[in-house]
Amino acid sequence: AREQTEIYAQEATHIVDSVAVELHDLQFTVSQTSLDYTTKFTEEEFKNITTAREKIAETYGRSPFERTPVLHFAFENSAGKEVASSSSFGEQALGSQGKWIEDHTGMRNIQRFAPLQEAGNLTFVLKGIYKPRPVEIAAPLKEGENIEVEGYKLKIENVEAVKKKGDRYIEAKLVGQIPPELLNEATWRATSDGKALDAFMSGLIDEPIDGSNLVNVEIYVRVHGLKKIPEDFTIAITELIEYKPLEQPWRVPLMD
Q1: Contact criterion met (CB below 8 Å) for 34 and 10
Q2: DSSP string covering 123-170, please?
Q3: Which of 19, 157, 178, 225 is geometrically suited to a Cys-Cys bond with 152, CB 3.0 to 4.6 A?
């Protein structure tokens, strides 16, 4: 039998740092609770970001990933207690799906949670947004060089050509101390002799160092499509994700 769906329509809009957040509805079924919403750049901000991305792409090519804003939000019950949040992956949060809106300024999202019917009247609480920011942070990909990210240096400790299971790539090891949010979801690119190349990061990010917002990192950046380390070789970060907290969370009762 098809699950019965209970829908609470809620059209509300709030703009945070040139990002419009539009709520559409809250839906309940026996197996899940879902929130339908849109995040999109304002027209002026979309033009600014598109212009910056196009300029960066002239040197580094277009990244296969075009980031859109992501929400940090929670649901509270009528007593003001948090019963689920967008960051509780694997617990209440079951995942999300999205599709580009017609003008490509943002995405329409359906975010799913474990059933929350028993929590009573729910309030949506927007705490902040994760917003992409195009940047051009580059350094020669050579041992001993540093790439400086917002004032924090990552040292290129080792660069080697790797052949593994038929795959060839250049792998660089970078170490340093840095706020972890500067590396989360950062977009990496590379160039060699004027050719733009994809680059991908993996590695270890430790727990915060006592008394600071820094962590020790040991990351590896791979550049595919090269058999040997070229003389002319540059690595770059072309986009960062910034967290923009709200001084006063935006609260919207969803079931009134």
Answers
A1: no
A2: EEEEEEEEEEEEEEEEEE-STT-EEEETTEEEEEEEEEEEEETTEEEE
A3: 178
- The CA distance from 17 to 238, in Å, is 20
Distance CA 177, CA 184 (A): 14
Give the model's confidence band at 1: pLDDT under 50 very low, under 70 low, under 90 confident, else very high.
very low
Cα 255 from Cα 10, distance rounded (Å):
8
Beta-carbon contacts of 117 under 8 Å, excluding residues fewer than 6 positions away, are: 6, 28, 33
pLDDT in tens, 134-153: 999 999 999 999 999 999 99
How far is the C-alpha of 226 from the C-alpha of 197, rounded, in Å?
A: 9
The DSSP output letter for 212 is S
The alpha carbon torsion through 115, 119, 124, 129 (nearest 10 deg) reads -60
Whether 146 and 248 have beta carbons less than 8 Å apart is answered as no
d(CA 13, CA 23): 6
Tell me what pLDDT residue 13 has.
94
